[in-house]
Amino acid sequence: MVIPGVEVSLRRHPGLRVVLYGDEKVIQPLLERHPLVKARSSLVHTDVWVNMNDKPSQALRRGRRVSSMWLALEAVKNSEATVAISAGNTGAWMAMAKFVLNTMPGISRPAMAAIWPTSRGRSIVLDVGATIGADAEMLVDFAIMGEAMARSLLHIDRPTVGLLNVGVEEIKGVEEVKAAGRMLRNSQLPIEYYGFVEGDDVGKGTVDVVVTEGFTGNIALKTAEGTARQLASYLKAEMGRSLLSKIGYLLARGAFASLKEKMDPRNANGGVFLGLNGIVVKSHGGTDPVGFASAMDIAVEMASNELVQKIAADLASKQNLMELNEAIEQPKTAAAS
Amino acid sequence: MVIPGVEVSLRRHPGLRVVLYGDEKVIQPLLERHPLVKARSSLVHTDVWVNMNDKPSQALRRGRRVSSMWLALEAVKNSEATVAISAGNTGAWMAMAKFVLNTMPGISRPAMAAIWPTSRGRSIVLDVGATIGADAEMLVDFAIMGEAMARSLLHIDRPTVGLLNVGVEEIKGVEEVKAAGRMLRNSQLPIEYYGFVEGDDVGKGTVDVVVTEGFTGNIALKTAEGTARQLASYLKAEMGRSLLSKIGYLLARGAFASLKEKMDPRNANGGVFLGLNGIVVKSHGGTDPVGFASAMDIAVEMASNELVQKIAADLASKQNLMELNEAIEQPKTAAAS
User: Fold this and answer.
1) Does A39 contact B at CB distance below 8 Å?
2) Residues paired with residue B43 on neighbouring β-strands, in sequence order
3) In chain B, how many domains are there?
4) Touching check for A120 and chain B: CB below 8 Å?
């Protein structure tokens, strides 16, 4: 599905060129069947590739310097490519991306951002599983990176940012989330901080960027995907149960097609690794050409809008926030002693 | 909505009697309009009640010994009632329940369990927000309590139990979840431990009981509720967009009614506090008589099936697990040194 997906995306982006890394015995015959891809890509043969079941540590050991993943990332590092994309093993891709590209100055751990369809349009949710556990400063970093991504990808001038929590009152939630909320509220960062949001705010589109730690974010994302599939299968079963409902379905098939399009997970395909010195995108492994092209579109959009440069500029002003925050925390300590 | 809801539930449970706590000036006129409730209930007047915006600490201070919440819980403590139910302030209800009834021997912190509609039927998910943060032993306690609830409420002989995690491989996830997984796998507890499950397994009904820490559980629950509402509103908008789809909707209205029934949040209304010396149920505040009756049904069902006794019996055998686990951990430490 990669080569046909590349073809779809190349048609949409006339200036785009692609470098393909992998086994030429597999790829070359596909290129013969997709002349547009053949004309606008170059192929770098690799004997080694990472398998879906390899552990990240295995992949790093075996795939170092020689695997298709490694070489694709090195192309970004050496500015031969602007963005690297893979539909392979997520853990290995993340580990290798971190190893080859390194985290940006001031970023301790990267995040994976998802694009979440909402009632108002699209929001960005991060982290959805790159990093398990996050302290307050890491959550602030996620806010900075997600906000820059919203400007680059969703073209919102002043995206709103919310921290995912179990209640909107200031008193609730875990200590790290509360501390991150204080830091964002008191910061001079050019971030439109909204406050705490709850699980049901994500689908409402209450904010443009939802910030959370990776364990919770991953579970929220997969729970929502599961709920959507569950309701779609209820609907399908109900519409096929009687002759009347089948006729009703046929008459309303335009509406159902439009609903299906809205719920199509392929439109939101593409996890984006943030916090690295380069743009790296992960496509779902189980997608089809349309889904892979959608992940490529995201990559192209962010590369054209200088995502990494936007994040770097924001991180430079983060130091102010940290100093300010220390200044705020100090009197409290004094009062307590 | 409480009094009409009580009426619905009294009709369904011929042996049920109810004690109402609250302001008689408000309740008495309602009883005149609901003679069935009047005939099968007694009313205890209180001058003090907890407001929806009271903080738990405020509620405990102001409502101690005199509020309607307190007196309802004390009735359970004194075995005058088998179960206490409220549609009021969740945090205050939980704090007061813990204060009045205390946690069961061996339980450090209580949990709130939700009943989650799945493609296979219903599952129990806990904790959905009673306790923020949980260590491995608390997660094992949640597994024990949720399993007993599945037997009492869902009438499953050997409910399967899964730990919510970000991946099914043994290597993934937070340390507490991994440790709880080892404890459940190696325990001699009569629990059908399935292993790790992911967010999308909840809606699939992969297991009967899903165990997680309260922050993540609350966010997963609200995210799923939000996704369901989002899709329902998409569907409604699409079906009203054209004449054909409106006719289709009319023809298939039986199917839509059945779908609506399946998705009706009132059917799964009722959070259950587990780990206290008594059964305590929380109804959604924003529900209607049908929803409140559904929460009462859950309470009645669990009281009839001796939930607290079942949990107590399982906790008694937990000590075995802890000892066994220590025995397993020791050789590892020796090998590492």
Assistant:
1) no
2) B20
3) 1
4) no
